[in-house]
Structure formats: structure tokens, C-alpha cells
Amino acid sequence: MIATQLRRIWGTRCAVFLVILLYVLPLSAQPANRYENLPQSQSFEGFPQLGYPSALVDVKVYAAFDDPASGAFWADSSEALIQRVRNGEVRLTFIPLFGVGTIPGGRGAARAAVCAQEQNVFWQYIDQLFASQSASGDEAFTGELLLQGALNLGATEGQWAECNASDGPDVILSDAQRAVENEANFTATPYVLVNNSPSLTDNESLEFTIDLIVQDANNQLATQSAVEAEVTPEATEVDVLQIDPLSHQAVEPPLTISLPEGWSFAYDALVLQDIDGIRPIPFAFYQGPVTGGTGTIVLLWGFPNLVNINALEPDVWMDGTRLLRLAIFEAGCNVGTDLRRNYSVGGMQAVGTQFASVDCPQLADTRGWFAGLRQFNLNFVFYAYTEPITAMDGTAPAELQAILDSVQFVMPELTPEPASE
Fold first, then answer.
1. 340 within 8 A of 351, measured Cβ to Cβ
2. Which of 297, 298, 295, 299 is nearest to 395 (CA)?
3. CA 152 to chain centre
4. Where residue 104 falls among pLDDT bands split at 50, 70, 90?
5. 273 vs 170, 278, 279, CA distance in Å?
6. Would you give the end-to-end CA distance of the chain in angstroms?
7. pLDDT tens, 317-353?
8. Angle 106-118/168-181 helices, nearest 10 degrees?
9. Are 5-28+231-409 and 40-217 equal in CATH topology?
10. Are 419 and 242 in contact, with CB atoms under 8 Å apart?
11. Which stretch of DSSP H or E encloses residue 147?
């Protein structure tokens, strides 16, 4: 049985923050493989992709299973790249090639990898293919071994045979060949692009290149934040629905959300001293176990936009950033934010950024992200984070994103009114 206690602490500036105490259920087991709970998709051309669309760094790997150098690259660099993917920094695309190395059966291995993608086991499968290079030599890519490797990962034999008998894999491999032919700087596999610029392929150089891009992004954010701090915001005059509940009034948000086993929720309203006055804002609070700790999602909704006086339209990202410091964490926390990025809520595009909160007087260090969007003329901002802060290094971000993916908005039974200034 989960006991929930909700405390509201009012600071001298009327800032409100929430503390939920839960008896947490036993944590789930560690991932069975290093790709578990990571977003997997494919590019327009059909090349496998791993990671979040909001990642700052786009890494494309051109590699061949018949090429020992590609195998050495994957053994040396893949773990660090996958950790970057898990952290939300990198989105990884793999472009499969063949016929460039010394190991027989490269085309068959590449076709098999494409068929593994069809059954959602591509990344585990290519780990097997590269491992087989050194373990089995010239016998690494026999048809029997390729099939058995797929079956070991849970692939369906009938679907596997159908894929291998079709020309579907050849279409994707042809696109891969055309892609590499369009790369003027390509010389040999492995070939790596970082944000569409060639990179050295040793792990140290690749990590250094990614670090530079992340640092540059942080510098841009600092400059952008300094400029925005000099502009005085004011309330919007556009039509937007506002919800004005009484303090401590539980108002259920107009949406459905699927919570994992062991999660709890609460609805309430808080009163904030905002830039243009005191206002109540309804919120929903969701909390429960994630791998490595406790996950929290706070939803603030039904509030008016505050925008720069020269802005052309309301900006939910600006509101989300403002409310992060005003409502989510207590006064005295050291709160930092990253660059503006695109996220997803309920399959719809949202805008937000990553954040971290440390050295708070009473709250534990944490980090996460927020995603804001407008639906039915209402503003919604979801704040997702974990405790301890290290839980975000594992699969917790994907677990929290899965909850956000389950959101379905419902048309509220309200009459739209212009937002007051």
C-alpha cells in the first residue's frame, strides 16, 4: 500500500514547491540488454536509428560487417555512444554497407541486419555480427549462423525467411550505397559523421568532437538566456483558456494517462506570485518507481502565457522555463537549463529543455526535462525528473517518456474566454 503525503511550503516570495513522500515499491531489474528502453526508429531511407529526436548531436555511422576495422570501431566506441544516446545527447544512425572488407558473406550479413530491423532487434543483432568477426573468421556469416543469431534474439523464423526472400533489404542497401557515394570525403569504413561533418573514428576523438558540440550549445544557451533576461515580459492578449481554481481545489486535467504499476497521482491547485500578479494554477502530480530510483511528472496547465512584448505569438517554452523556477523547485535551489529542444507528448510535438536542480535547502538533487504544448486552446507543461539524480543516467528517461507517450488529451467542457492581463 502506498502512503502519500503532500506538503506545500510557502516562501517569503509566495513561491510554492511540492514534496511527495511515497513508500516506493521494489525497483525493477536492470535492463537485460544495453538497448532496453531506448527509442528505436528509422530514417526516411530506412536506416536504423537509436535515440531521442531532441538530441543535440546527430551521429551517423557508415560501417560494414565484412570489414574488421568496422568491428574494431564498434567494439571500442559503441558503449560510449550508447551511453550518450541514453543521456539524450546523441541520436545514432547506422548505415549498413558491404563488399569493402575481407570477411566472406558481407552482403548476406547486411541483408540479415536489415531483416533484424524489421523484427526490432537490429542493434542487438549487429552486436552479434561484429562479435562473430573475431570469433568465427571466414565462417562468421553462414546462413545457419545468421538465422540462429536472429532466433536467439526472439525473431520469428517465418517472418525472417520471408524478409530474406524479398528484395526489401536490397533496396535499403542500395540506398546506403548511394548515401556513401554522395559523401565527398568518404575514403573507407568505418566512416562517421557528427552533425553531418566527418569525424575521426577513434573513441577519444569522437568523444572530444561530441563534447565540443555540447559545450557550444551550452554557450549559446547562456547567451540566449542573458538576452532574454533583459526583456520585460507581459501577459498575452491572445485568446487562451484559463482555469482559475481555488487554492487546494483538486481539478482533474482534461487528459488520460497510463501509469505503471506502483505509481500514484494527486490533483490540486497552487497560488503563485507571478510576474504580473498573483494567480492560481491547477496541477497534477504523478510519482512512482523507475529503474534506479523514483520518477516524478508534474503537470501545470490552464495558465496564461507571458511573452516578451515584441514577440509575435505566445511561447510555451518561455512559460515552462519561468514556471520551472517559480513552481517546481523551492527558492534557494541552483537550477540550470539547457538549449530549447523539441519533445513529444502523446505523439504530438512539444517544446522544452533539459534541467537540473541541485543544492536545494530541503529537496534532493535532481534532473530531467520539461515539455510544453497547447491543446484545445489550453497550455500544458509536463516536468519529468528523477531522484536520485543518477537515475537519469540509466533507463529512467525512456520509462518517463513512455508515460508521456500514453497521454491523450480530452476536449474540456469549458467556454473559451480571453486571458486577462
1. yes
2. 295
3. 29
4. very high
5. 61, 4, 7
6. 45
7. 888 888 888 888 877 788 888 878 888 898 888 888 8
8. 110
9. no
10. yes
11. helix 143-152
Q: Is the pLDDT of residue 274 over 60?
A: no
Q: What is the 8-class DSSP label of residue 18?
A: E
Angle (CA) 395 400 401, round 5°: 100
86-88-89-95 Cα dihedral, nearest 10 degrees: 70
Is residue 64 within 8 A of residue 194, CB to CB? The reply is no
Mapping DSSP to helix (H, G, I), strand (E, B) and coil, where does residue 402 land? Answer: helix
List all residues 6 or more positions away from 274 whose beta carbon is below 8 Å from its beta carbon: 306, 326
Q: Which of 6, 74, 1, 83 is nearest to 38 (CA)?
A: 83
Instruction: Give domain 5-28+231-409's CATH number out of 3.40.1000, 2.40.350, 2.60.40, 3.40.710.
Output: 3.40.1000
Supply the pLDDT for residue 230.
53
CA distance linking residue 322 with residue 358, whole number of Å = 17
User: For every residue of 31-48, which 3-state class applies, written as one string?
Assistant: CCCCCCCCCEEECCCCCE
Cα angle vertex 397, ends 391, 402, to 5°?
A: 135
Q: Beta-carbon neighbour count of residue 297 at 10 Å?
A: 23
What's the grid cell of residue 28?
525493477
Between CA 339 and CA 342 the distance in angstroms is: 10
φ and ψ at residue 101, rounded to 5 degrees: -120, -165
Residue-range domain boundaries for the chain: 5-28+231-409, 40-217
Strand partners, 350: 343
Q: What is the pLDDT of residues 16-71, one digit of tens each?
A: 333 322 222 222 333 347 898 788 888 878 899 998 777 788 999 999 999 999 99
| Count of residues in the chain | 421
What's the CATH fold of domain 40-217? Glutaredoxin (3.40.30)
Whole-model pTM: value is 0.53
Alpha carbon of residue 28 to chain centroid: 20
The answer to whether residues 346 and 340 touch, using CB atoms and an 8 Å cutoff, is: no
Helix or strand run (H / E) with residue 224: helix 203-229
Sequence-ordered list of residues with C-beta below 8 angstroms from that of 415, at least 6 positions apart, any chain = none
Task: Report the C-alpha gap between 322 and 311 in whole angstroms.
Answer: 16
- C-alpha 48/C-alpha 63 separation (Å) is 13
**Of the candidates 249, 326, 335, 316, which has an alpha carbon nearest to the alpha carbon of residue 284?**
249
Amino acid at site 106: G
